[in-house]
Amino acid sequence: MGTFSSIEEAREHFKKDRFASSTGMVLDELTDEYAVCSVELNENHHNAYGGIMGGAIFTLADLAFAALSNNNHQPTVAQQVSINYLSSVKGTKLIAKAYMKKNGRTTCTINVDVTDDTGRDIAQFIGLGYKL
Questions:
Q1: Omega of the bond leading into 75 within 30 degrees of 0 (cis)
Q2: Which of 32, 37, 41, 116 is the most buried (most CB within 10 A)?
Q3: Side-chain half-sphere of 112: how many Cα atoms within 13 Å?
Q4: What SS3 state is found at 96?
Q5: Other beta carbons less than 10 A from residue 65's beta carbon
Q6: What is the pLDDT tens value at each position of the chain, 132 positions in all?
């Protein structure tokens, strides 16, 4: 494993990401190559039109990005990120899987695919991390 000695240590660390934690987002898996985070959706995740808020989707992707980038080098912060929303959510759970695209000396590029529990592609997030 990377900078975290166990997934339990990583989970404890990311409990300090209070916004993600308070909205039910959890770290499910963490290796040197990928991270998986998820959230069970409830009425607090909905926007005024009844869909899932873009900010909730973004936050889940950002948590997966943070877990993977900081497992490879701590601390790493987001330098630039982008997200493309692909489809509306039909399921009751969101899953974000982050993959290391490039791990350089001072930066890393991580792709995060967000799906729902029906298998629907919800969003694609790309983050550039800067290693402090």
A1: yes
A2: 37
A3: 34
A4: strand
A5: 26
A6: 589 999 999 999 999 999 999 999 999 999 999 999 999 999 999 999 999 999 999 999 999 999 999 999 999 999 999 999 999 999 999 999 999 999 999 999 999 999 999 999 999 999 999 999
- Name the token pair of 64: 């997966």
Q: What is the pTM of this model?
A: 0.96
d(CA 22, CA 67): 17
Is 100:120 a contact under the CB 8 Å cutoff? no
What tokens appear for 63 in the block?
């948590």
Place of tokens 């889940």: 60
- DSSP classification of residue 112: E
DSSP designation for 28: E
* CB-count burial class (<10 Å; 0-12, 13-18, 19+) for 22: exposed
